[in-house]
């Protein structure tokens, strides 16, 4: 989806930006973002915390709420101490930069 968004954004900005100025594409993008966030706010319902966990089904059926939340300490421990997570973070960081460059600047380079 990131590639499609960059592609359509560049095409739209290239077509409309020369006629309406550089602000036009940003106004459209901001309007669509606000509209989509309002639609999500109105129509998407928050799921019950732990509602799909088989272990918690009996507890939730009895009316008790599952209130355990992830703390910053637990999150940092999971991200930095777990070798698989640390490897995925480094892999994602160093591979997202080349793909972002390719999708963003290769189109401009090839169009010249």
Strand-and-helix sequence, N→C? HHHHH
The tally of strands reads: 0
- Mean pLDDT, nearest integer? 82
Contiguous uncertain segments of 5+ residues: none
Topology record:
Elements (H helix, E strand, L loop, with lengths): L1 H19 L2 H21 L13 H5 L10 H10 L1 H29 L1
Helix pairs in contact: 4-5
Give a structural overview.
- This protein has 112 residues and is an all-alpha fold.
- It has five helices and no strands.
- It has helices spanning 2-20, 23-43, 57-61, 72-81, 83-111.
- It is flat and about 65 Å long.
- The mean pLDDT is 82.
List keywords for this structure.
112 residues; mainly alpha; 75% helix; 0% strand
Q: What is this entry, summarized?
A:
With 112 residues, the chain is mainly α. The chain is 75% helix and 0% strand.
